[in-house]
Amino acid sequence: MRGRAGWFFTAPAAALFAVFFGYPLVASLVQSFQTDSDGETVWAGLDNYTRLFEDPLVGRSLVNIALILTVQVPLMLVIALGLAQVLNLSWLRFRSGYRVAYFLPAVTTLVAYAVVFRVLLNTDPGLLNQLLGTHIDWLNDPTMARVALIGSITWRWSGYNMVILLAGLQAIPKEQYEAAAIDGAGSLRTYLSVIVPQLRPVLLFCLITSTIGTLQLFDESFVLTSGGPDNATLTPVLYLYENGFQQLDFGYAAAIAWLVVALTGLLSLVQFRALRTKS
Amino acid sequence: MKRLAHLPLAAGAVVSLFPFYWMIVAATHRTRDLLHSPPPFLPGDQLWENLRRLEDTVGFTRVTVNTVGLTVVYTALSSLISAMCGYGLAKFRFRGRGMLLAVLLATMMIPFQVLLVPLFQMMANVGWIDTYQAVLLPFLANSFGIFLMRQAFLEFPDELIEAGRLDGCSEARIFYRIVLPAARPQLAAVVIFTFISQWSAFIWPLLMLNSEEKYTIPVALSRMIGQSHVDYSGLMLGAFIATLPIMAVFLAFQKQFVSGLLGGSVKG
Fold first, then answer.
1. How far apart are CA A49 and CA A252, in angstroms?
2. Which of B2, B3, B146 is nearest to B81 (CA)?
3. Which pick of A42, A125, A207, B18 has the fewest CB atoms within 10 Å?
4. Rounded to whole angstroms, how far apart are CA atoms B155 and B150?
5. Does B116 reach chain A within 8 Å, measured CB to CB?
6. What one-character DSSP code corresponds to residue B179?
């Protein structure tokens, strides 16, 4: 009786997952071992996967992602943590106003965001260039396109992480600050021995979700630069999309997808292990 | 000293908000005035003119009605499915429960773009390309919403459910009359998130919808970008209209928004 009721409540979601998640997932795995030969789908063995290693564009997209992982993610998390700390100060006025201001970019519609940034970053005359008094070719110069991409992701997601870290900070009981003060701990000491250890699970959450988000990065490079110039902002998922929907090379697109899945699992595991053993 | 802290904070807030402000400025000027040097920094008087052009070129009213309709249907169905599934997972033991939980985790780890090609072929096979059901169905079951509702229902006391059963209530009635009202804040968070995700949905509707009269706002805007002569002020006005409801929902429901964002993540 109770078991049947459990099925009654979960059946709609389970059926939808089976049809629109389970089936396509298996289909994409099968596709990754197939290729198209004269309009016919044939078995290709590991060909699609070995091709990944020889494809310079796959390497290029991985380098781009690695760059964002090592530059943008730490930069964003430092900004988010700093903002969260400051906006947690009880004596600061307009705190909620600042929170809204910093969080708002995270709720922007992808297309609206893209449109605005394309107009702002236009070369000639380009509002940002006018403000800075420069003539930087933001979207057509490989280095600058990366700077623009990193800047826009940071603009969009710092406030989001700030809100999560702020909630983490507020979950730390006030008594612990007082206890630290009574024990004669200075503010740096309190910070390192009280706040940081307690905040670790929340930081880990931010780090892992940002890493997953970066590995799956698509929106920003799709709409801002279409992966260009000279593939400087090409991401694996964007390359997957190009292979699947422009070249109609479904097998290869599927292999790229599974490469991303493997990387996501691996990196999440590493971060999880590294940060958990310390605590 | 304390006042000084506002300097960097306010500067950051300006950077954060400026693109929104400039969206309004650009939406109220002519495109050619935007490309002038120096560009305008205050709102202009071309709002109605731009709106009329947007209506003439992409049928913006129609496009907006489509987006509202799709978003409302999606939000209602998806939130209901999330609440039901979350309740089932939180309060019942049944075969397949562990597997369903594993699927939920997997949907978060796997990039949804993996599914795009097979989903596209599926819709093509059943002849659903360019239909609204093809836009809505694949993402109706939303693992984030289910997780959040499950977290909410885990804390609901079993005794109250038992009491309902003793009173002879059906399981569906217990859910609808007793359990669901208690989870109203979390349900609100799920409703807000599903609303925003469907309102902004881009790639999938772009792949599914071919006829202009079926476009949603994001799809219509992206088609405008692709044109040879880009109508920047029209685009910015469209982007502004696309952003407005999301901003309004966010500002009105900040609290639910943040609780939705956290999804039980901070407790651990």
1. 8
2. B146
3. A42
4. 9
5. yes
6. I
Residue type, B128: W
Chain A: residue nearest B222 by CA?
A111
Pick the range with the lowest mean pLDDT from A82-91, A153-162, B74-83, B134-143: A82-91
The C-alpha of B152 sits at a distance from chain A's nearest C-alpha, in angstroms, of: 15
Interface list for A 3-62 with B (CB within 8 A): 3-10, 12-14, 16-17, 20-25, 27-28, 31
Q: Which residues of B154-185 are buried (b: 16+ CB within 10 A; e: fewer)?
A: eebeeeebeebeeeebebeebbeebbbeebee
CA distance B250 to chain A (A): 8
Cβ-based neighbour number of residue B63 at 10 Å:
25
Residues B215, B254: Cα–Cα separation, whole Å: 30
Q: At what angle do helices B217-226 and A110-120 cross, to 10 degrees?
A: 30
Which of B31, B110, B192, B261 has the most A C-beta neighbours within 10 Å, making it the best mutation to test the interface with A?
A: B110
CA dist A232 and A219 (Å) reads 15
ipTM reported for the complex, 2 dp: 0.90
Q: Is A124's pLDDT higher than 90?
A: no
- Cis preceding-peptide flag for B111 (omega within 30 of 0): no
CB contact under 8 Å between A237 and B235, yes or no, is: no
- Sorted by sequence, the CB contacts under 8 Å of residue A118 that are 6+ apart come out as A139, A223, A224, B225
Instruction: Choose among B149, B18, B88, B107: nearest CA to A17.
Output: B107
Q: Which residue of B lies nearest to A248 if distances are taken between CA atoms?
A: B117
Report residue A68 as tokens.
């964002």
Give A142's contacts (C-beta < 8 A, 6+ positions apart).
Answer: A229, A230, A232
pLDDT tens per residue, range A183-235: 877 777 877 787 888 888 888 889 988 998 999 998 888 888 888 789 999 99
What are the beta bridge partners of residue A34? A43
Record: contact B222-A264, CB cut-off 8 A: no
Residue in the block written with tokens 């913006």: B60
Q: What's the number of CA atoms in the CB half-sphere (13 Å) around residue A153?
A: 28
The answer to whether A195 contacts chain B (CB < 8 Å) is no
B21 vs A: CB within 8 A: no
- Can you list the positions of beta strands (E) in chain A? 34-37, 40-43
Interface contact B88, partner A, CB < 8 A: yes
On the 0-12 / 13-18 / 19+ scale of CB atoms within 10 A, B204 is buried
CB A231 within 8 A of CB A149: no
- Looking at chain A, which residue has its C-alpha nearest residue B170? A5
Q: Using an 8 Å Cβ cutoff, are A8 and B171 in contact?
A: yes
C-alpha distances in Å from residue B71, one per residue of A37, B76, B141, B195: 41, 8, 15, 6
- Percentage with pLDDT > 70 across chain B: 97
Tell me which residue in B117, B138, B172 faces A253 most closely, judged by beta carbons: B117
